[in-house]
Structure of DRAM1 protein:
Amino acid sequence: MLCCMPGVAFVPALLVSWSSAAFIISYAIAVLEGHVEPLVPYISDTGTKPPESGVFGFMINISALLGVITMYIRYLLIEKQNESSHFVRSSCNMFSLCIGLMGCIGMGIVATFQELAVPSVHDIGALVAFGSGVVYITLQSIISYKSCPQWNSYFVCHIRMAISAISCIAFIPMIVFASQISMTKIDWTPGEKVKSY
């Protein structure tokens, strides 16, 4: 294995912890400020108005950077394993990395352009982030199966593929329902008429 890998093993855990904190902190601020209802708001709703928008944008951009670092480490790990086993083409590994990096760029767009300030750019960023994320996860699951049994157990591969399947299934209704709505504001009062465009 790579001699430097034990020193970077904390990066994926940091990515998950930091990203979770970003969503939880911006949610808490948004609820305390009265900007969103506490019951299951959209993630982007919790980062639309100041002060939570600044916290959300900053923390999600750091998450995107941590995502880039994590994906690059994974790319290097597969390249090193592939030197002795030749289980996957190097071009496939590079393609997977590029798709993952596109997803991180999408995350950066979502963080930078708030949902109501620039909705079309925000929505494109979300589509790129989630779409690329689903493709990246699926490609990594396939690469994991190809590296069995030398570099992965089948149990880990099955878990990765299950996560990929759930992600793919969740992506479809996200696209369908997102295309049906046009968000122009977060707060609605009963009886308020919806503007049609």
Observations:
- The chain has one domain: 9-183.
- The helical segments are 5-8, 10-32, 52-85, 90-112, 119-146, 154-180.
- The chain has a mean pLDDT of 89.
- The radius of gyration is 19 Å.
